[in-house]
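This follows on from our talk about sequence and fold. Go ahead and set the record down below:
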Amino acid sequence: MNDNTEKAYIKRINIVIDYIENNLAKELSLEGLSKKACYSPFHFHRLFKFITGEPINEFISRKRIERIAAILLVGTNASITELAFRYGFSSGNAFSRAFKNFYGISPTAFKSKNKISKIGVDSKSIEKYICQIDNALDWIKMNGQIEIKKLSEMTLIGITHIGEFNKVGDSYEKLIKWMTTKDLLNVPNLKAVTVYHDNPKVTDPSKVRLSTCFTAHEDVPVESPVKKVLIKEGYYAVGTFEIAPDSFSKAWDSTCVWVLENGYEFEDGHYFELYHNDHSTHPEHKFIVDICIPTKKPNTKNRHSSKKSERTDNDNLIPCGKQSEEDRIQKDYKKLLACIKGLRTYLKKTYPIDYKTGSIYQGNINFSYFPFTPISLKNQKLKIVIIFSYNKMQFGICLAGQNRQIQKKYWDIFRNSDWNKYHIPNNLEGFSIVEHILMERPNLNNFNTLYQHLEAEAMKFIGDIVEVLDL
């Protein structure tokens, strides 16, 4: 294979890899991907394995598993089953088997092992967790500043680098050499950018893929191995730091903590570092860098606000460390957990025969829940879920399906009926078919009174659901 032929092959395979990474939630067939590479399926399959070292189906499966693992690592409101369906797995069980084969542990165990939840751990772990959070936020105050920004679309030119982080500099040198021959280095406001296509915490280091890039105009022509990389317009948590090379991991971890602590949600997209200086000319050889993490658009309507903590529509971030009254209330983790556990025990003892009471789900920093389902609904593959939201300080209840297909079936039934006794979500992004608020800002000073009130409200909701479904 001559050099030009190899470059052509690599260019086409890179186009397909970029498409896969940007469309993991869509159907990805061999025929469709081979067309994008302009090869027959047979030739494409062989060429893809030759270039990447992995068969195409294994590559897609690995990318999907790693994407879900990365989401679980930083925290999400979505359940593991929801993520499995979103990223192309036929069922939660199929995903769990694939995940365990890949990482050696179940998704639930992975989540518990790699991320301590605020709720659902013993008091010593809670103290340790709070200490870790405080340390991260203090570190940010001393070393940088973070804000939510809406970034415009950005076109980059870059070279793909796989594995061996200590050789990333070689990729930059190769790119600079190419840009020198094209007279592209004398551009005003030229910035170097490292784009991460994989999370080093969930991807084998030998397979971590990133792009070493520089900013460029859209019409700049490129040739293999140089390619164009597009950073999409959107909202990003942007942490600006002045740090030594060995502090990058701390800066990334602290920025992720900041996103979670301030109530934002992560979004699929490119995570990247944008450099504002040549660190070799810095007096202390430090990098002045923006660490950029894609987030969902801030929801100003549902966010808590106070004189000290307020988010406006101008896309600016709350200064880190400021907390609303609700945030301070949520720090009484032990009492909240005792309340939720006590409610589950109360209901399980009160309804030991006709109801199935499940375990408490504690894997999210925003809410915990447990199933409390009458047998008649369970037989229809439905479940009742009692939820406590730490952000909103409220108990809720909902009807949910045991899988995505059941959820859609019954959601369609309710949406297409004239029944409107309780709230029916406008879409299936969550797991609720029908939902209702049981109590806002509960009084935690008298658990018995609280449990009786929640029991009465929950049984009324369940009775109405059973009646309308005629079960």
